From TrEMBL:
MF-aspect GO terms: carbohydrate binding
InterPro entries in the cross-refs: Bact_Solute-Bind_Prot2 (IPR050555), Peripla_BP_I (IPR028082), SBP_2_dom (IPR025997)
PROSITE patterns, per database record: PROKAR_LIPOPROTEIN (PS51257)
Gene Ontology CC annotation, any one: outer membrane-bounded periplasmic space
Subcellular location: Cell envelope
Domain Periplasmic binding protein: 45-304
Signal peptide: 1-27
Official protein name in the record: Solute-binding protein
Alphabetical keyword list: Signal
Keyword check for Phosphoprotein: no
Species this chain originates from: Tsukamurella paurometabola (strain ATCC 8368 / DSM 20162 / CCUG 35730 / CIP 100753 / JCM 10117 / KCTC 9821 / NBRC 16120 / NCIMB 702349 / NCTC 13040) (Corynebacterium paurometabolum)
């Protein structure tokens, strides 16, 4: 059964808008960008993302989503908001999107557990909500990667690299991010079965590389670098902070322990090619952003949401929410060329800057 939504359009007016577009949105306190096909289109889709410290959201999710919406619907436009890791700000942005007349809301929550009120407000206005990348109870749809599998991939990488024994640090994601708990659970399920010992653990409140660097620096005041045989970093930004802390403490770049990551950030892929980070988890963001756009356009225009049997997409129900779950991929030096380069996530030229040219040649990236 397909849900269809209709409602009375509500428009945010805070004064006479002399110019079209930006004036009214600014008055609503929303950092918003719009793409539209037909100038008179009234099918607005709100895209709300949680933060900008992780490079993927601004560099990939937003532009990919906007491009796909434009391809699918000439009368649709996208209003974009970024919460900058501020839950109260995101709540206000949701209200702004509702008042401005969004016909579908795609919400990547700052705090999945705390986003229920935002979903309730949207539903009161008869606006469907797609929980994007992070789960929200009560949403109409949920799209994400298999997050526990992400953690298992990371954990297995460390166990394999260390032969199942040794001391590691664990740098997890933000406690407010529901995915972070799933990454940790997946990693722990593998690490806990091995002889690896966690000698220090940190839940990074905003995923920031600088806090990750400070945590590792603090750990190095209590442990010799040689006492740390590996590091579980839940994402690539934190992995960069780990590398900075270790090299800052005198560990040479070619003597760094195995360090995990996630998101396949360009800097991380370069570190992997150079042997400074052991792996990352590549989540082909295009499949997530494109599927979100397809579902959002269908909801905004009163059409059937897509069903799919496409490779890498599992249709299921997750905690009573109809879901699209995508498959994550481990990336190491051995398969950079056949994953992120083959998928055109990055070009060889982007990865193989002069500093990494020799390492790229050895890894067969050209």
């Amino acid at each position: 059964m397909t849900l269809r939504y209709s409602r009375t359009l509500r428009v945010c007016i805070t004064g006479l808008a002399v110019a079209l577009g930006a004036a009214s949105l600014t008055a609503c306190n929303a950092n918003s960008s719009q793409k539209s096909g037909d100038a008179g289109g009234g099918n607005t889709i709100a895209l709300l993302l949680p933060e900008s410290k992780t490079t993927r959201y601004e560099a990939f999710d937003k532009p990919l989503f906007e491009k796909k919406v434009a391809e699918l619907c000439s009368s649709c436009k996208v209003s974009y908001y970024n919460a900058d890791q501020d839950e109260a700000k995101q709540s206000q942005q949701v209200e702004t999107a509702i008042t401005a007349g969004a016909k579908a809301i795609v919400l990547g929550p700052v705090n999945g557990d705390g986003a229920g009120g935002m979903v309730a407000s949207a539903k009161n206005a008869k606006i469907p909500v797609i929980a994007y990348d992070r789960f929200i109870a009560g949403a109409d749809y949920y799209l994400s990667f298999d997050n526990e599998q992400v953690g298992r991939i990371q954990g297995k990488s460390l166990v394999d690299a260390l032969g199942g024994r040794g001391n590691i640090l664990m740098l997890n994601g933000a406690p407010s991010d529901p995915n972070a708990a799933q990454f940790k659970a997946g990693a722990r399920s593998v690490i806990g079965q091995s002889g690896i010992r966690v000698i220090g653990e940190y839940d990074n409140p905003d995923w920031s590389p600088d806090k990750a660097q400070q945590f590792v620096t603090d750990q190095l005041s209590r442990n010799k670098p040689s006492d740390i045989q590996g590091v579980y970093a839940a994402n690539d930004g934190q992995a960069g902070g780990v590398v900075a802390a270790l090299t800052g403490a005198g560990v040479s770049a070619d003597a760094l322990p195995p360090i995990t990551g996630q998101d396949a950030e360009l800097a991380a892929v370069q570190r992997i090619v150079a042997g400074r980070q052991s792996m990352t988890v590549y989540k082909p963001i295009a499949i997530e952003a494109n599927t979100a756009a397809e579902v959002a356009v269908a909801l905004a225009t009163g059409k059937d949401v897509p069903t799919t049997t496409a490779s890498g997409i599992q249709r299921s129900t997750f905690k009573d929410v109809s879901s699209y779950i995508f498959t994550p991929i481990a990336v190491t030096k051995a398969n950079v060329a056949s994953t992120v380069v083959a998928d055109k996530f990055y070009t060889a030229d982007q990865i193989c800057t002069p500093e990494y040219k020799d390492a790229c040649a050895k890894a067969g990236i050209n």
